[in-house]
Amino acid sequence: MLTTTSVKLHLGAAGYCTHPEFLTLRGGSLRPVAFPAGFACIIHPVHGPILLDTGYSSRFFKETAHLPNALYRHITPVVYREEDSAVHFLARLGLKASDIRYIILSHFHGDHIAGVRDFPQAQLIYLPRAYDAVRSLGPISAVKAGFLSGLLPEDFDARSLPVTMQAERWMRAGEDFPFSKVCDIFGDGSLLGVDVSGHAEGMMGILLSTESHDYFLCADAVWSSRAFQEQRRPHALAGIIMSDRLTYRRNFDRLVQLHQQFPAIRIVPSHCREALNAWGTGAEEV
Ligand SMILES: [Zn+2]
């Protein structure tokens, strides 16, 4: 087992957007491909159900009804039905929104935080650098950074639980783990936050273990499993939306290395349809 305390994991997606494949995968086609807005419900033995991100929600459409935010929707057309929401997904697991005490935010792009307001009781866990990078942006810069401030609740600061990364050498079966900045989120070895910046400043992935498998939920460090399996970086054009291309490349290479060193770890990019179909529920309709 990769971690010291096992959890249960349910992978889902709330809506999807479409992009031409070549943007996200070098050598890909011009045809539009659906990218599910993935999220995870992690059942912790002590803290109960926890969300990692939320996918889209109807709030996203309210927030992008007018310019300049409407640009976001034009650039990434979104398909979403109310029954796709994280709240509905949880209901199918027998859970209520009020059961969620924590939401981990991998980063602050709209397709990851759009459902946060649906969970008024949850405390919000994230890397301070991720929020600092977007909190003071003006309206145009915020849209360019994929951030819609209206998606966050008014009491966001009061409910925030920022976490910090420690630079540490982390070994597994005698081999160095390729990512060096790790954070034990609850201090019990169950959920390990990993700095995977580059796509967005302060982006955090999560390492966890269920009773049967190890997982690395790597947020948007890659858009699809094929990217690290076939070592295909996104098109240079996709660099426009990245916070730091050099860091993106470094973390991309680390992900490739992780996959080669530890092929049994199930790497789950937020927007990978294959990974969601293989190991999750709720993405099959996409
Ligand atoms: Zn993103």
How many structural domains in the coordinates? Answer: 1
Molecular shape: globular
| Main sheet specs | 7 strands, mixed
**Mean pLDDT, rounded to whole units?**
90
CATH superfamily name? Ribonuclease Z/Hydroxyacylglutathione hydrolase-like
- Going by helix content, strand content and strand pairing, the class is alpha/beta
Identify the strand order in the major beta sheet.
4-1-2-3-5-6-7
CATH architecture: 4-Layer Sandwich
Fraction of residues in helix? 10-25%
Ends apart, CA distance between termini: 32 Å
Catalytic activity: 3',5'-cyclic CMP + H2O = CMP + H(+); 3',5'-cyclic UMP + H2O = UMP + H(+)
Organism: Paenibacillus xylanivorans
Family: Belongs to the metallo-beta-lactamase superfamily.
Function: Counteracts the endogenous Pycsar antiviral defense system. Phosphodiesterase that enables metal-dependent hydrolysis of host cyclic nucleotide Pycsar defense signals such as cCMP and cUMP.
Give a brief rundown of this model:
The protein is of the alpha/beta class and 286 residues long. It has ten helices and 15 strands.
Please, could you describe this protein's structure?
The protein is an alpha/beta fold and 286 residues long. It has one domain: Metallo-beta-lactamase, Chain A, CATH 3.60.15.10. Helix content is 23%, strand content 24%. The chain has ten helices and 15 strands. The chain has helices spanning 21-24, 58-63, 70-75, 86-92, 110-113, 128-132, 139-144, 225-229, 245-261, 273-279; strands spanning 8-20, 32-44, 48-52, 78-79, 102-104, 123-126, 160-162, 166-167, 171-172, 175-176, 181-184, 192-195, 204-209, 214-217, 266-268. It has a seven-stranded mixed sheet. Strands 8-11-12-13-14-15 form a six-stranded mixed sheet, with no helix packed on it. The radius of gyration is 17 Å and the shape is globular. Mean pLDDT is 90; it is low at 282-286. Zinc ion (ZN) binds at residues 107, 109, 199-200, 220. Keywords: Hydrolase, Metal-binding, Zinc. It comes from Paenibacillus xylanivorans.
